[in-house]
Amino acid sequence: MKGSVQVKNQSLIIHVPKELDHHSALPIRQQADDIMRHQNIREVVMDFSGTDFMDSSGIGMMMGRYRAVQRNGGHMRAEHVNDRVKKILDMAGIGKLIEISRA
Amino acid sequence: MENTNEMVLEFDSRSQNEGFVRVAVAAFATQLNPTLEEVADLKTAVSEAVTNVVIHAYREKTGKVRIECCVRGKEMTVTVIDYGVGIENIEKAMEPLYTTRPELDRSGMGFAFMEAFMDELEVESRPGNGTIVRMKKKFGCGQSPFA
């Protein structure tokens, strides 16, 4: 599965690809930044329902978008996070900044 | 005498190879009857090492990356070799959150993840000549789904 990006109201929903690494993070970053430059985005939702691999490049991509939405007074959350993705997010200490849910 | 089994991969430092390489190394590790978690840990560590080469060692250029895997008993050694710019200050590079390329959304967690997911990590580098990252992991500490 390739990642995709979608806007609903003022939420930017990022459908994270099956494997979130440096290679797959690049196009998502570009699409997300393009939307965030032109629209008033108050929430970024990372939908991990189709994701079974993630590394520190994914963390970097999330942090960059987190900072962007925060500058706009918004927030980020991660949903449908499985055990593996949870482990990576926990190791990076990202749970302190964003809401993480399994469902 | 202990049995050893070796495998070598050489590929271009292109980002689309990151996925194939971690899967190839993980496939080679199946002979050790790893748990799913051990496989995921290995894939993440390999991905970190290869991504470092793509982003830092060769930057905008493309060069060769060589991966040597050696299985000895229950242990696997993965050596990632590049011929790129090298690392000026290894200690600094290994500090969590340190990155030379924040503009590329780098988290600075690459070496920290390699250390966390493998049992041993060793980095040798010569500025201008390249870098060798050697990682070791012992398998079979948990229940294997392949057994």
How would you describe the overall organization of this protein?
The complex is a heterodimer of chains A (103) and B (147). With 103 residues, chain A is of the alpha/beta class. Chain A has one domain: Transcription Regulator spoIIAA (2-Layer Sandwich). Chain A contains 3 helices and 7 strands; from the N terminus they run βββαββαβαβ. Chain A has helices at 22-38, 56-71, 83-91; strands spanning 4-8, 11-15, 19-20, 43-47, 53-54, 75-79, 99-100. Chain A has a 5-stranded mixed sheet. In chain A, helix 1 packs parallel to helix 2. Chain A is globular and about 35 Å long. Chain A starts with a strand and ends with a strand. The model of chain A has no long low-confidence stretch (mean pLDDT 95). Chain B contains 4 helices and 5 strands; from the N terminus they run E-H-H-E-E-H-H-E-E. Chain B is 31% helix and 29% strand. Chain B has helices at residues 17-28, 36-57, 90-93, 110-117; strands spanning 4-12, 64-72, 75-82, 120-126, 130-138. A 5-stranded antiparallel sheet of chain B has the order 1-2-3-5-4, covered by helices on one side. In chain B, strand 2 (64-72) and strand 3 form a beta hairpin. Chain B has one domain: Histidine kinase-like ATPase, C-terminal domain (Heat Shock Protein 90), CATH 3.30.565. With 147 residues, chain B is of the alpha+beta class. The interface between A and B is medium-sized, with 22 and 21 residues.
